[in-house]
Amino acid sequence: PIDDFGHGTHTIGTVAGQDGIGVAPGARWIGVKVLNGAGYGYDSWIRAGFQWLLAPGGNPSLAPHIVNCSWSSSISSKTTYQPDLQALRAAGILAVFSSGNRGPDEGSVGSPASLPEAFAVGATDEQDQVTRFSSRGPSPWGEVRPHAAAPGIRVRSSLPGGAYGEKKGTSMAAPHVAGVAALLHSVSPTLSITHTMYVITSTAVPL
Q1: Under DSSP, is residue 203 helix (H, G, I), strand (E, B) or coil?
Q2: What do you get for the CA distance between the two ends of the chain, in Å?
Q3: Which residues have a Cβ under 8 Å from the Cβ of 123 and sit 6 or more positions away?
Q4: What's the confidence (pLDDT) of residue 57?
Q5: How far is 60 from 8, CA to CA, in rounded Å?
Q6: What pLDDT does 2 receive?
Q7: Would you list the DSSP string of 89-151?
Q8: pLDDT tens digit sequence for 106-151
Q9: Which of 100, 152, 164, 197 is 20 to 30 Å apart from 122, CA to CA?
Q10: Is 175 helix (H, G, I), strand (E, B) or coil?
């Protein structure tokens, strides 16, 4: 895998990094590059990435249990990726998405985090309070968003080239939840998506 932007290296470090930065440091991971060096990508690139995840290298047995997606569109009602998320869910792959950084207005949650098939994550600060920038629901379909919130301020993680650095945003929050989901699967490999989401949401501190 390559990272010519730095964002992906930071987020995967929060999921699976060593030396105290990762939630699930023993997790195995794969990278799917769907964005360019400026952090942008066409819908076709992203959809191809989702399709690849179903059978990496053409092998469905290599598909991941969880996919962390620290990106979003500002258009809450965008449904371009809904068929892809439905396919991931049908394959037993939990899709964790950052809710976006367009808070605190109501209905500011981005897509795909707004979609029914996504697990949406907002950001908290050092006092475990929801950050002002963290996007809120409800979704355009009246559903509560985000499902959970996690650290999104001054998050220390890995950077390309073996360095460490701090970043902020719901992009930094989502991989915390993806890491928790990975820990749950290490304990119970057959845990369903619904039960994984229930365990996380039912044990979280209400904010």
Answers
A1: helix
A2: 37
A3: 99, 101, 130, 131, 133, 134, 149, 150, 151, 152, 153, 168, 169, 170, 172, 173
A4: 92
A5: 23
A6: 87
A7: HHTT-EEEEE--S-TTSTT---BTTTSTTSEEEEEE-TTS-B-TTS-----TTS----SEEEE
A8: 999 999 999 999 999 999 999 999 999 999 999 999 999 999 999 9
A9: 164
A10: helix
